[in-house]
Automatic annotation (TrEMBL):
The protein's name: C45 family autoproteolytic acyltransferase/hydolase
Pfam families: AAT
Domain Peptidase C45 hydrolase: 142-364
Gene3D superfamilies: 1.10.10.2120, Penicillin V Acylase, Chain A
Transmembrane segments: none
One MF term in the entry's GO annotations: acyltransferase activity
Keywords: Acyltransferase, Transferase
PANTHER family assigned: BETA-ALANYL-DOPAMINE_CARCININE HYDROLASE (PTHR34180:SF1), PEPTIDASE C45 (PTHR34180)
Coiled coil: none
Length: 379
């Protein structure tokens, strides 16, 4: 598929009011391997060509809707790819393989991987997520809701990735065209993600999704994963939660640098900076953000709660209903493309057991959604 075909100004699927019920999505499972990064990328691209093209269309349509021209999209994607080449050239080799396998140009795949950075170019209200951890030696567990644009309910997939060049296997989910996102590796180190916002955020840095991929590929301990995160020249704000069997660390990322937050027992994060070091320029995601209310609700839920027996028990603290701060999100009626938020994926990590459970939709939907479970073991 050529760039003209992928970014044709003619109406796409994403110019309609179509919204899929996230809980009814049946995500594809990609099994990705290869002799080296380039071969692994080509295999991913060939296997997922249709999904990757759909996701490129989704983001290009969203960016265009937000006033970011295709030329600007391409320039921003290429800047992030250049930053990534300086930081982790093997990932660019792999993304080049993805593009070749999918019949796209490299910048188009870069568009998806750098979507968080490109969104900083628009006056846009990013979507919100919630993460909850219980940290204890030999008993750390974590759960997350991934909230995003409701129209993107079927542009993600489960994945099981075999490491190359001494890197680790990892399992989880990603949006089509990304090398990694939320998941756990064979060293039982996991990563979760929440978006944040700062007045100085900009495009062109190492994509945060590439940082997640690197942590999954090479982070053999929580400390190693945190060092990988802190080494990247990022330009957009996020918080990455790193989990292992004995501990968890939330690494806030902002224009001024990073701050690692850790605690024993319960701690949570939503979509505003909570560390003291990165508050200069910090902003709510949007004027109607309920990030602080969601965090307060979660913290009140666990204030007197004992250590959880399992991650399913933790999900109960993320279940919300009418009248409560919306940890579980459903699309608002009457809103258009780019304005509707839904909880697309629910994630459970048990690093001690090396267990990852993921299901479409919100914690409220777990009983009716089709879940997948991965077991991570060292090779």
């Amino acid at each position: 598929m050529s760039p003209t075909e992928t970014h044709d100004p003619q109406p796409s699927r994403f110019d309609t009011d179509r919204v899929v019920d996230p809980a009814l999505v049946e995500p594809e499972l990609l099994t990705v391997s290869g002799a080296d990064h380039a071969a692994r990328g080509r295999g991913r691209g060939e296997q997922a060509a249709r999904g990757i093209a759909l996701t490129v269309d989704a983001y290009s349509s969203l960016f265009s809707r937000l006033g970011i021209t295709v030329d600007t999209q391409r320039s921003a994607a290429e800047q992030s790819l250049a930053a990534l080449a300086d930081w982790d050239p093997a990932q660019v080799d792999e993304l080049t393989g993805v593009a070749a396998g999918a019949g796209l140009e490299l910048w188009q795949v870069g568009l998806v991987n750098a979507r968080t950075e490109i969104l900083t170019l628009a006056q846009v209200d990013p979507r919100e997520c919630s993460t909850l951890v219980h940290a204890a030696p030999g008993g750390t567990k974590a759960v997350q809701t991934w909230d995003w644009h409701a129209e993107f309910a079927d542009v993600w997939h489960y994945q099981s990735v075999t490491g190359v060049d001494g890197e680790l296997d990892h399992h989880g989910f990603a949006e089509y065209g990304m090398l990694g996102k939320i998941g756990m590796n064979s060293a039982r180190v996991g990563v979760m993600l929440n978006i944040l916002k700062n007045a100085e955020d900009s495009a062109g840095g190492v994509p945060v999704h590439s940082v997640l991929a690197a942590a999954l590929q090479r982070g053999r301990t929580v400390a190693e994963a945190v060092d990988i995160i802190r080494s990247a020249r990022t330009t957009s704000s996020s918080v990455i939660t790193v989990t292992g069997p004995d501990a968890a660390v939330m690494v806030e990322i902002g224009p001024a640098g990073t701050q690692a937050l850790s605690a024993d027992g319960w701690f949570a994060h939503t979509n505003h900076f909570v560390g003291s070091e990165l508050l200069d320029g910090a902003l709510p995601l949007n004027a109607a953000s309920m990030s602080e209310e969601r965090l307060a609700l979660i913290e009140s839920q666990v204030a007197d709660a004992p250590a959880p027996a399992d991650t399913a028990e933790m999900l109960g603290h993320l279940c919300t209903g009418p009248g409560e701060a919306p940890v579980c999100r459903v699309p608002e009626p009457g809103k258009g493309f780019g304005e509707r938020t839904a909880t697309l994926v629910t994630v459970q990590f048990d690093p001690v057991a090396g267990r990852v459970v993921m299901s479409p939709g919100s914690p409220n939907d777990v009983g009716r959604a089709q879940a997948v479970e991965f077991s991570t073991t060292a090779r």
